[in-house]
Design goal:
Helix content is about 35%, strand content about 25%. By secondary structure, it is of the alpha/beta class. The strands form two sheets. A six-stranded mixed β-sheet has the order 6-7-8-3-9-10, with helices on both faces. Strands 2-1-4-5 form a four-stranded antiparallel β-sheet, with helices on one face. Bound molecules: adenosine-5'-triphosphate (ATP) and magnesium ion (MG).
Length: about 240
Amino acid sequence: MNGATLQLDRITSGYRASVVIRDVSFKVAAGEALALLGKNGMGKTTLLKTIMGYLPKKQGSVQVNDGDITRLSPHRVAHAGIAYAAQEKALFTELSIRDNLRMGLEKDSLFDERFADIETVFPVFNARLKQYAGTLSGGEQKMLLVARALMMRPSIILLDEITEGLQPSVIERIAAALLHERQVHGTTLLIVEQNVPFALKVADRYLVLKQGEIEEQGDANAAGATESIFNHLRV
Ligand SMILES: Nc1ncnc2c1ncn2[C@@H]1O[C@H](COP(=O)(O)OP(=O)(O)OP(=O)(O)O)[C@@H](O)[C@H]1O
Ligand SMILES: [Mg+2]
């Protein structure tokens, strides 16, 4: 099994003088899936960018298993086994589906074996590997973004609102792909979402972020989890 532990300890970060994330600590165990929920502008993307090293930490530390990744560049964080499906479009639209998928591989010879796994969860790409990514529909591009992360066989995947604007059948497909990934590879997931049913379906636990602080947390399968989350998202 692949999964690694991700641990944030008292992370504070933001943009230049502005503090967005305030003293956030949590741990995602190896193979566990944690949903990070919260309304628009609460700091979810900022937190993922901080973990990835796109934003400097003003305070605190990030550990993967026993390794300190607090000060690593995004490239090195990826190398440490963390894949990131960003909220903003991050595909190379002028490149083929195949070239997008092989982007994170250390060597091309890994492609066939890795893609064989992807094919079963996203059959939409079979026989279309030469097609330009830019010609895919919005939903297909989101699936490609997830597929690219899976191709890296990461130990941790960070997903930023991957279901945003997608129709139910595509959301189902992505949920199935992530559950498959957990089952087969034991990958650790950190899922930023506004789609609460999707998040609770895939995750074991959830956190609600409000103005950059953890305001509530619980077990995704607990009776009343949905109601409690909506109460926190309403105000
Ligand atoms: N590049 C930036 N420079 C300065 N402030 C920023 C920057 N990007 C985001 N912010 C601010 O940081 C705060 C948190 O934004 P963030 O994008 O992390 O929220 P979010 O929870 O991901 O929201 P959404 O659900 O809408 O994606 C917001 O107040 C936002 O305006
Ligand atoms: Mg965001």
